[in-house]
Amino acid sequence: MSTTITFEELKENLTFKSDLMLDNEFVLLPVTVSVTPELIKALKEWNFTEFQCESGISLGGDIGVEAKPQEDSETKTATPTVTDSVKTALENIKSEAVENSDRTRLESVQEVYQEYMKYINSVYTHYATHKKISLDEMTETVKDLCIFIRENKRYVLRISPSAEARNKNFLVIHSMRSTVLAITIGLELHLALSKLIELGITCILHEIGMLRLPPQLYMTDKPLSAAEKAQISMHPLFSCNILKEQNFPLSIQLGVLEHHEKENGQGYPRHLSGEKISTYAKIISVACSFEAITAPRAYKTERTTFDAMVEMLKNPNNQYDVTVIKALLYNLSLYPIGAYVYLNNGKIGLVTDVTPNNPKNPMVQLINEKDSDGSPKTIQTDDGSNKIIRVLSKEEQADVIKSIQLQTEAEKEREKQKKQKIAQENSLGNEYMNGLKKEREAENGFSSVDLSAFD
User: Which one, out of 267, 364, 374, 412, has a CA that is 20 to 30 A from the CA of 283?
Assistant: First the structure.
């Protein structure tokens, strides 16, 4: 028989001999995990007053979440800012826009992308060490990020961090990739720039509550137990509480709190449904789910972006907002930007852009083919002779990427040899011209000699 535990009975470091339940389905606190001040604050904020527990209260001594030491409130350090290198990289992109070399542009976009990831890492690190997040500073930074994504969407969406990189810095890479997708969706939904900025900030910080959990829970290479999953499920409450403490707008607080809610009411922590879920949370839910499907993990194999898109379109059990899914589809296409595809004419291509109002037939850059000006050959796919048959398997894609790398290296080597040949020819030309000059000087010198001495 279960026992009712009231809010007033919850005290810091208190533990329970069985799971503390919020209702019949949601585990509020796994067995032996201690009550934290953050949990008490979150429950008070959302007016949860009674909970259920099969067994009694433990007086302590069990293994729980280790409390983090609080920093001296007088300790002050500068909040993280965008590095000069990202500003330089942004300027490089603008200057290269005239040249519009696909390879050069992609490399520049990747450079900016990496700098923004460093920025997100600095935000998380700064909060972990100093318990401070600057809303004003983030607003300026994310404004530039929104503009950067809008102007370079077809390049940004082609960037996919390696499995090794993801495993080393899961929170930062997941937040960055999800934010790119969320802002892309927001652009398709024609959100005002001020709303896009709020959406970007919300998505960057939606996992900040993870910092109040043991890192082994979200960095593990093994599937989580039910109790561990229950601990993880507390992070939206922690994230919301952190942003409330930092005086972030309510719209951003709700976005991080509700990003795991589902349209059908089967999400958490409050089992909201439909219109009760905030717009930012609806968008982040779709972006995070798409990113998670395609993300490699130590305990699961990543799936293709095409697989992810198909699963999102199926929308099992009506989990996601249909309008948001449609915005994702029309911004990435059925065969998402960055996917390698096989055409019915036997050619292989890289999806580089969407076709307005036709997500089934995106723009494709043909592998190892050039236009007359030497630029990569790009075609419009269709339902005829340029029809996409399927996406390449992971192994096929690896082979194609290796082939492209070898070709790129060969092209660079040819360019190097060409420059060396030109330099050599210029050198020989200079030697020849210097020889002619000396000969002429000698001839002129001889003709000007006074011949009267020979008379």
Answer: 364
User: What pLDDT digit, counting tens, does each position of 211-239 carry?
Assistant: 888 877 777 667 778 888 888 889 999 99
d(CA 351, CA 354): 8
- How far is 408 from 400, CA to CA, in rounded Å? 12
Closest C-alpha among 242, 317, 324 to residue 283 = 324
- Tell me the C-alpha to C-alpha distance, in Å, between residue 61 and each of 13, 66, 257, 443: 9, 12, 31, 105
Is the pLDDT higher at 387 or at 432? 387
Rounded Cα distance, 240 and 127, in Å = 14
What is the DSSP annotation of 295-314?
--BTTB----HHHHHHHHHH
* pLDDT over threshold 80, residue 369: yes
Average pLDDT along the chain = 81
Burial 81-102 (b: 16+ CB within 10 A, else e): ebeeebeebbebbeeeeeeeee
Query: Rounded to two decimals, what is the model's pTM?
Result: 0.73
**Structural domains of the chain, ranges and CATH numbers in brackets:** 3-58 (no CATH), 84-332 (1.10.3210.10), 336-425 (2.30.30)
Copy the structure tokens of residue 227.
């109790």
Residues of the chain with pLDDT > 70, as a percent, come to 78
Residue whose C-alpha is closest to residue 86's, from 111, 50, 55: 111
Distance CA 367, CA 42 (A): 53
Check pLDDT > 60 for residue 46: yes
Average pLDDT over residues 354-367: 92
Distance CA 376, CA 386 (A): 17
From CA 304, how far away is CA 269, in angstroms rounded?
A: 30
Output the DSSP codes for 363-403: EEEEEEEE-TTSSEEEEE--SSTT-EEEEPPHHHHHHHHHH
Contacts of residue 252, Cβ cutoff 8 Å, sequence gap at least 6 = 198, 201, 202, 205, 243, 280
